[in-house]
Amino acid sequence: MIVGLTGGIASGKSESAKYFEELGTFCIDADSVAKELTCKDKPALQEIAKVFGDDILSVEGTLNRKKLADIIFSDVNSKLKVEEILHSRIISRINETISKEISEKEVIVVNAPLLFETGLDKVCDKIVTIKISYDIQVKRLALRDGLNDDEIKKRIASQMPMEEKVKLSDFVVDNSGSKKDLKRKIENIYGLLTSNFK
C-alpha cells in the first residue's frame, strides 16, 4: 500500500513521517529527494544556476537555498521555472524507489508537501493530510525558520489551500496539540490502514 502524506508548511509532516517509520513503514521524503537532486554539480542544480545565475550558488558551488526560497516565494514565474526543472525529476526518483521497495514493504509513505500539486496523489492508495490552524502555522514558521510576517504569508499562500487538501484526503489529522497526541493519531491511522493485512 502506498500512502501519501501531505499538509501545509510547518504542519508536522516530518514528525508524522517519523511516527509512521517507527511503526515499520518505509518513508520517502520528497524534500530530501529535492535536496539530493540539487547537490553540487548535479544536472538539476546546473539548470537552476543557468536560469537564475551563479548568484544562486554559494562560494563552494552548492545551492544557496535561502536565496532561492526568497526568489521563488516573491515571484510566481520563478517558482514555476524551478518546479519545471525539479518536479519531473522528483516524481521519477520517487517512482523508482517505490518500484524497488514495494515487494518488500507492506506500507510505503510518500511525504510530499506538494503531493496534489505534482500529481503524486495519483500513485497513492490512501492520503493522509496533517492540518493546523493558520495562527498556529504562523507561530511555528516564525519560531522554526525565523521568518517575518511578509515571508510567512508568501510561503503559506504559495501552497494549495488547506481546505482543498482536506477535501481530497482519506484521513485528516489535526496537529494543534502535543507530539504525544500526534503520535497517537498516527498510530490509529496506521491501525486502520493495515487492518486488512492481519
Descriptive report:
The chain has nine helices and five strands. The longest helix is centred in the middle third of the chain and has 26 residues, at 76-101. By secondary structure, it is an alpha/beta fold. Helix 2 packs across helix 5 and helix 3 (43-52) runs antiparallel to helix 5 (76-101). Strands 2-3-1-4-5 form a five-stranded parallel beta sheet, sandwiched between helices.
> What is the number of E strands?
5
Mean pLDDT, to the nearest integer, reads 93
Helix content percent band: 40-55%
Query: Looking across the biggest beta sheet, what order are the strands in?
Result: 2-3-1-4-5
Work out the strand percent. Answer: 5-15%
Shape: globular
Span between N and C termini? 14 Å
Low-confidence stretches: none
What does the largest sheet look like?
5 strands, parallel
Order of helices and strands: EHEHHHHEEHHHEH
Pairing-aware structural class of the strands and helices? alpha/beta
Number of DSSP helices? 9
* Alpha-carbon Rg, integer: 17 Å
